[in-house]
Amino acid sequence: MKIHTSLNDVKDQLISFISEGYGILGEAFMNSFNSEIPNIQRRWENKVVEYLVGIFPTKKETGQFLHSPGPALHFNNDNNINDAMNRLNISLKALEQILDTLERYYQFEPESFSLNIQDIDSFSKVRGVNHRDVEGYLKNGFLNRDEDAIKRAFAEIIEESFVPEDWPGETEDLYTSRMWYNGQRVRASIIFNGPGKVKAKQTRLRDLGARGDQLVRMMRVDSSKLYILQSVKPISHEIVVTFEALIKDQRSKGNLCYACVIDGQDTAEILSAYGYLP
Fold first, then answer.
1. Fewer CB in a 10 Å sphere around the end CB: N or C, the chain?
2. Domain residue limits, the chain
């Protein structure tokens, strides 16, 4: 089953809860007459439950946290404080068990800023394509296909019925909510780059839009999960570095998004997988 958060983020949060819980338990031992311990324990428990319900796709972890059996130990002569300490003790062991078995049960969001085409569910058929299947269509990484034809092919592959016409001020060539990634339908912004008039061997930043700023303008749209740059040529290193910096900026603002660079070979593999190459 899939969780739409990175493994490290989930681990960090669970460890934070465990640390906080042990802090409460330590306070109860140090100050055995603190009548607020039961209230503090309940607030901590509610906070953990709210997180577990929001992050995990089933009730397994919530039930494990709330209802795991354990021995009733004598910590304190005050029954309320003793009950709270017992609940803490059992709950902490349950959280540690959840933490230790995360990767046994779940798949998580990747940690990297970028995705390969094989990572995107909408392009899943490409996983069965070998580069030798398309090498006859490529010349030194260049796929001689018209930009508009590729855009319409991609729209059909992702089942997007609306394909806008190009215009000089566009932020992206296609904005869609019909992409599928990690088992979820997500929004995506896509730039398409065809052969162009410049006979450069690679697509460079200056080739993106009339002023060479289309990548930056696309990244100003902060509602997308996937930002995709497609080209029929190999992609220059300056684009990859700039793209990653823009993704980092988006993430710093709370948008957990990804970049995907699709060069000429990737484009050929996608088109071949979905029957758009002879």
1. C
2. 2-107, 112-273
